[in-house]
Amino acid sequence: MPDLERATTELLQRLIQFDTVNPPGNEEPAQLFLKAMLEGAGFECELHAAVEGRPNLIARLRAPSDGPTLCLAGHVDTVPADPDDWTADPWSGELRDGYVWGRGALDMKSQVAAEIAAAVALASEGWRPEAGELLIVVTVDEEVNGHGAEWLCTERPDLVRCDLLVNEGAGDVFDYDGSRVYSVAVAEKGVCRFDIVTHGRAGHASTPRIGDNALTKMAPVLAALRDATPALELSPEPEALMRAMGLPSDDLEAALAEVESKDPRLLTMLEPMLGVTLSPTMISASTAINVIPARARLTVDCRLPPGQGEEAARERVAAAVGQDGFDVVFSDTVVGNRSPADTPLMGHIRDFIEREDPGAEVAPIVVTGFTDSRWWRHAFPDCVAYGFFPQRTMDMFETAPLVHSADERISVDDLGLAASFYAELAEKVLR
After folding, report:
1. Is the pLDDT confidence value at 2 over 70?
2. Is 77 a catalytic residue?
3. Does residue 413 sit in helix, strand or coil?
4. Span 325-343, mean pLDDT?
5. Do residues 109 and 76 touch, judged by C-beta distance below 8 A?
6. Cα torsion for 324, 328, 334, 337, to the nearest 10°?
7. Which of 373, 376, 369, 379 is nearest to 400 (CA)?
8. Which residue out of 5, 19, 27, 77 is catalytically annotated?
């Protein structure tokens, strides 16, 4: 498909021009545009919304016989952008020096464009699945609330049930000590948020000793959290990644020390995969400047390996800061999950990379953040859900700082690479 790169590029430019900054989102015009495009190629399309004006797009291309359902998923909402910080208009979709510029160029209108351009190209040429179904799910509200994939998987699972899912989360390449590695997100850490609360006695701020300042009691807690490092524990995904990098997994401290000495940038990526992390992010105390606070509250963002929950977080807090002098109040826990890494889908990815970038490794990883793949795995335990958007022109260290930042952009070459992967995958799986 020689025109696939161009079609993907033009579609991404158009999608960036839809201002879908969330909040408020306003995704409906973009979704209607994509719906018309897919229907024109022969897809059956539906729009389903949890809230008015923010519809999720479901598109199907069915085979005459039963078989697997392959879902290509993505979201069209984006985070905000301040034009004063950019060297391009964030909503222009400008094509400059072989790159498409604009908010969503990486997260994740690029993948949506590549998936849909690939699907439309196949269908327009007369291709149809021989068995099963090609399912396209374009969601809203991924960046803020749960009106997209979470709502669909929870409230309308009949619409999005699938056997195989390809979503965001990984795929950009990195080099380490002679190894060239493409990551595949097969798992996600869980989220566990809580408050650490210290107590004292209120008093007038003009007389410091008259009260018992709860805020100053946070000082040792903050210092301990600043110095805390993950209690290193090995799980399948980082073990596989370390193997691809040529690192020993029987001595994690030695492996991390080696990475730090050779490429400290990779330590930032690898270390959080190896255990529970604690990040203090917000603090509050007195509501008046002249009142010594009787209570101070520190909010902590905790991320846990797949399958772990509140108890693991409590143990990590106790190990990092002790158990005395404060209360721990949990507010929100979402347990992380994983898909098996040894699957035919992983085999298709390896075959594609071996052909496109001979000698490169493919390694499963655990995402330390959060993507919508988690909802599919939870709703459909047999679903193999991976994050994979292959990029080789811009490596991981070029793309990561641009996500949610100024001058977000993506290489046209990488758009063509990704679109060719999705087209090839559909032809291989649905036959």
Report:
1. no
2. yes
3. helix
4. 95
5. yes
6. 0
7. 369
8. 77
